[in-house]
Specification:
2 copies of one chain form a homodimer. Chain A is of the alpha/beta class and 334 residues long. In chain A, 31% of the residues lie in helices and 22% in strands. The first copy, chain A, has helices at 37-40, 87-90, 103-106, 118-121, 134-140, 143-153, 169-180, 193-202, 212-222, 238-246, 267-273, 284-296, 315-323, and strands at residues 23-31, 55-62, 74-77, 80-81, 101-102, 112-115, 122-124, 161-165, 185-189, 206-208, 228-233, 248-256, 264-266, 276-279, 308-311, 330-333.
Chain lengths: 334, 334
């Protein structure tokens, strides 16, 4: 991305092993993330940056210290590379590993990528997957793992009522996660017919089209005036955060994964809400083995969030389509 | 309290049973709360308000529907009256009961008080307590219960490192709670020698006198650069909240119980901190039976936070002493 709104595909040198813990992968599929739209729209600075942090692919080469993946393996990795051995990783927060490397800086919208901390970051499938499962594995790399973390952070449990603020890929996969975790009622907040339909397919039992005060009132009315037990926030704005907090009952849980932009949470509102608040960059690596099993067993089909598929060479069109909301999420074939 | 800084003790009509779920108690002891200092100092509006929300006493009269306490019982109640039967109460958030009544509006710095929802609010001792235990039971009514909730919200567990921001009665009793919950290391943040001494008596293993950036740096240095597992926030200012968040490791837990004043939490800092945040008005009622057992068995002595004791008639002196930090907490004998 040269500057906001200006994306092109160019030749760059092939990546090479820099540290003995690195692996080089040949990327099979990658995609554009909702968070890539922040710089595209000028909300974050950008200056000739490599782009992309979601990826699946085949191991091409490994450093001398790599033990758990080997050349030829099909692998899925998190958008944050982690050693998976430090105290923070062991506690399940690999996205805040003491040696974390953000894959956005590496740039996985590419043919090849260097993966730092390969053993701690990548998970291999037992054998190369069926072609039709590749979109789902790609979703696991970020949006599924992030929606799953949000549902986990919101303590979704069997019998609970869950509300989901945000109908992008992460919000929709938050719905799927809540369904898998046994929620009794899942209320998707969405104003777009196509996204409402996918939310229902993923397990939403109710749709609320209202936002802000009216959205909060609708959720409260549906929950005996109390609010939802668990609320997933997958946008990252002031309005969406307060909508999430205010839609949650006292003692309930908000899981927030929308990357915060210009959000200031009023302390007194948070205090008297008595909710639990937890979120941040999702530790996708914590959930990857489980998610990959569910995908392999065809228990879930998160790849459905990709409603457009085009070659990597046309990445600029992918950004445009997502920016214009012509697509929920675009898969780039490599 | 007539206006900021202006407190007097006056005759008011004796309270009477207004609803069949009420009880009237003859107050044995009451006290001044740190939160009473906000209006005293002009931070909250006040206009001839009855004051006080902490109390222990003897049941004088009960309404027709009261079943669990009887005339003559020695009782402890929370600073928030609750029915203890609604869905929110059953989930352990009695301070946000759908029928909640704040006892501050009733005013328990008095000889008698009407307690709404007596069955859901009051807990009786099996027999009248020894005189020397009364301060500890009084502490259970708010500051002990609040410090306990903060430690619970911060998920203090055996083997964990806990930091406590704030050295008022609640912070000090947060130290005691953390000790009872089996924390391995308890770092009290305090600049006052008398409070440091009491913190150590309650179980603090370390003292950090620095605040703000320096305080955060000290906690990080003591925890291998990671931050504490659990942090108790018991002040309620912007500085103390951010000190708490920044002293907590990724994936760790902040329990905040200082009543928020002019706090705005930056969303992006909270997002990247990856901490859990939970707090609010403590559901003291959830913890009362356990806390009262520990007091009866002399396992804990939270009454030590009262370092001054004067008759109710001299309440104005109690406010002055706490405002001037001449006393940590003043017990008013009735």
């Amino acid at each position: 991305m040269h500057s906001p709104g200006n994306v092109s595909v160019q030749d760059r040198p092939d990546p090479t092993i820099e540290k003995p813990t690195d692996a080089i992968i040949r990327i099979a599929a990658t995609c554009v993330c909702g968070s890539d739209l922040w710089p595209y729209r000028g909300a974050n600075d950008v200056d000739n940056a490599p782009m992309g942090h979601e990826y699946v692919g085949y191991v091409q080469e490994v450093g001398a210290d790599v033990r758990t993946v080997k050349v030829g393996d099909f692998v899925v990795g998190s958008f944050m590379a982690s050693d998976n051995t430090c105290e923070i990783c062991k506690a399940g927060y690999q996205s805040r590993c003491v040696h974390v490397v953000g894959m956005g800086g590496v740039g996985t919208q590419a043919e090849y990528a260097r993966i730092p901390w390969a053993d701690g970051t990548l998970v291999a499938t037992p054998e190369p997957p069926a072609e039709d499962l590749i979109p789902s594995y790609l979703a696991a790399s970020d949006v599924l793992g992030t929606g799953w973390f949000a549902a986990d952070a919101a303590q979704v449990r069997p019998g609970k009522t869950v509300a989901v603020v945000g109908d992008g890929a992460v919000g929709l996969l938050g719905v799927l996660a809540a369904q898998q975790m046994g929620a009794e009622r899942i209320i998707a907040m969405s104003r777009h017919a196509d996204r409402q339909a996918l939310a229902r397919e993923f397990g939403a039992t109710d749709i609320v089209a209202e936002r802000g005060d009216e959205g909060v009132a609708a959720i409260r009315e549906m929950t005996g005036g109390l609010g939802a037990h668990s609320v997933i926030e997958a946008v990252g704005t002031q309005e969406s955060m307060m909508q999430a907090v205010r839609s949650t009952r006292a003692g309930g849980h908000v899981g927030f994964v929308g990357v915060s932009h210009d959000v200031e949470l009023p302390g007194n509102k948070l205090f008297y809400s008595a909710v639990h608040l937890h979120g941040g960059p999702a530790p996708v690596r914590r959930f990857l083995p489980d998610l990959m099993d569910r995908i392999a067993n065809r228990m879930i089909d998160p790849g459905k969030v990709f409603d457009m598929r085009i070659p990597l060479e046309q990445a600029a069109d992918a950004y445009r389509a997502m920016d214009q909301r012509e697509a929920i999420k675009v898969l780039l074939t490599v």
